[in-house]
Amino acid sequence: MLKKLKLVSIFLCVLLLSTACTDKSKQSDAEKSSSTVQENTTGTTVGSIKNTYWLCEDDSVGWERTVELFFNEDGSFHCRSIVPEADGYEDYYVHIDAESCTWNQNADMVELEFHKVNPHKKEVFYAQILNKGDKMRCPDMFEVTYDNLVFVKQDKMPKITSIEEDSPKLVGEWKVVSVGGHIPNTLNTNDGKTFESSINIYEIKDKLYADYHIIRQTDLGKSDLEQIGLTLNNEELYTGIANEFWSANFDEPVVPEGASTKKKLNIKLTLVDDNKLILIEEDLENEYTDPTPLIYLRKGSKEYNDRENYFYHNIITVSNINELAESLKSNTKIILKEGTYNFSDLNEDKISEYEETKNENILMYTDHLRLEAEPGANVSILINSASDNVLGFYDGSNISLKGLTIGHNVEKGSCTGNVLYFSSVDGVNIEDCNLFGCGTYGISSYLTSNMNVINTQIYECTYGLLELESTDNILFKNCVLRDSEGFEQFIMNYCNNIKFEDCKITGNKVDYDNVFISNTDSHDIVFKNCSFKDNNYKEKNNDGIEFNNCTFDDNK
């Protein structure tokens, strides 16, 4: 899960190393800055920079970052560089590795000193205040670019967290909203539930304690702990986090119940905002695996009440296919007004950004995208091409579809494309949808994991209902799978942990000698509380399929 987060970290480290300067070149850059920067010729006296906050928005190296400077009254200062969040992860913070940072101002010139311990040395950068004291120019202290950076003075200085003032804010009830950038309810667990976790932190006699509940992903177990002591530390939770100053940890390691492999976990956490807490579970016996960050929001807060939209930077309402196509981007929630949205009716001349999807409805590298019908609206998403998937998702994560009718607008029996296709997608949620033929399969997936299909109908498909290959952790619950005919109706090749609960499978027909439910080298395939009625087949299933409390009234 942390693959993307790791890549961001590695990318930044390589970039910093590749652009690093020697001490001599830094001094040269500083002298150049002092000699080439425009002098303050306005005659205005430059005031003190103590208790001020400065900001630089920089994209000179091809990616965006924000550089901050905090000048304190005691002569110390703090600086950090921030890379904006991507794909649901937190912003990545880079801090100067120094024991202390001090500033000294002489009129419009500012000397910035970094005092380092290992190795013991002092680095100095020189900045100059410009205009009427509202701008400052200095070399890039993070050595990402050789260009000078221009900072703009801000009206208000934000508060930097401290262990003394902010650790009491840990007290409260917290609920998880993100698991390594994934939506918790898309991650399945051993007992058929979805990932969930909460933590309640309270104080007893000047010491913090926590009640910790978590149901982890499949094979990772669960924990229900009460009154575990917390110890505060003057260290960051992990590299790149916003709060570099302090964290807390459980006083004793946690051993998950029901995990496939027994392990001891060191639970650590910190605040990054008054209403946002980040927690990690470190495997004490595996130092080479980075823990997955879990993000919690304070129950009752404004952020928690809007938690459904946590991953969505944009919430857009659309009313036609051109608006829909232009809105299909990561971190976007799209609300569709009543009507029919046919991809074959796209007017490409009116679409500014749709290069990857305008021909075959392929969404590449898309994360945190939700398509949802407006409450009470009848919404259909169609395509006139029999050979194309109606919607295809490749190399993405956290795709949600709700309240939609999706299918091919062609003569029944002529399709060679699927209704929905997923390849290398992690996290899919399909709820209250109708997926109809003549698509070859209602859902086809490859190398896909953590899919929930809830209260959804799949019907009138040409080849079969489902085609799942190398697909893991899938739950179909309260679904109707009906009136399809052709080859195997359920194909599950090289899959793991596929569950069907409280589903109705009716009116389907298998031609020739094909198996109704086909399994090739798959494991943990379970139908529970399902009813089979009026299906026609010669052979119901091959080996490796488990039926629990199911009823059969077929082949009449």
Describe what this molecule looks like in 3D.
With 556 residues, the chain is mostly beta strands. Helices cover 8% and strands 45% of the residues. The protein contains five helices and 46 strands. It has a ten-stranded parallel sheet, with helices on one face. Strands 4-3-2-1-9-8-7-6-5 form a nine-stranded antiparallel sheet, with helices on one face. It starts with a helix and ends with a strand.
Topology:
Blueprint: H1 3-18, H2 23-36, E1 52-58, E2 65-71, E3 77-83, E4 92-95, E5 100-106, E6 109-116, E7 121-130, E8 135-138, E9 149-153, H3 163-166, E10 172-179, E11 196-204, E12 207-215, E13 222-233, E14 247-250, E15 265-273, E16 276-283, E17 294-298, H4 302-305, E18 314-318, H5 321-327, E19 332-336, E20 339-342, E21 362-364, E22 367-373, E23 379-383, E24 391-394, E25 397-402, E26 405-408, E27 420-423, E28 426-431, E29 434-436, E30 441-446, E31 449-454, E32 457-459, E33 464-469, E34 472-477, E35 480-482, E36 485-486, E37 490-493, E38 496-501, E39 504-506, E40 509-510, E41 515-520, E42 523-528, E43 531-533, E44 539-541, E45 545-548, E46 551-553
Parallel strand pairs: 18-19, 19-22, 20-23, 21-24, 22-25, 23-26, 24-27, 25-28, 26-29, 27-30, 28-31, 29-32, 30-33, 31-34, 32-35, 33-37, 34-38, 35-39, 36-40, 37-41, 38-42, 39-43, 41-44, 42-45, 43-46
Antiparallel strand pairs: 1-2, 1-9, 2-3, 3-4, 5-6, 6-7, 7-8, 8-9, 10-11, 10-17, 11-12, 12-13, 13-14, 14-15, 15-16, 16-17
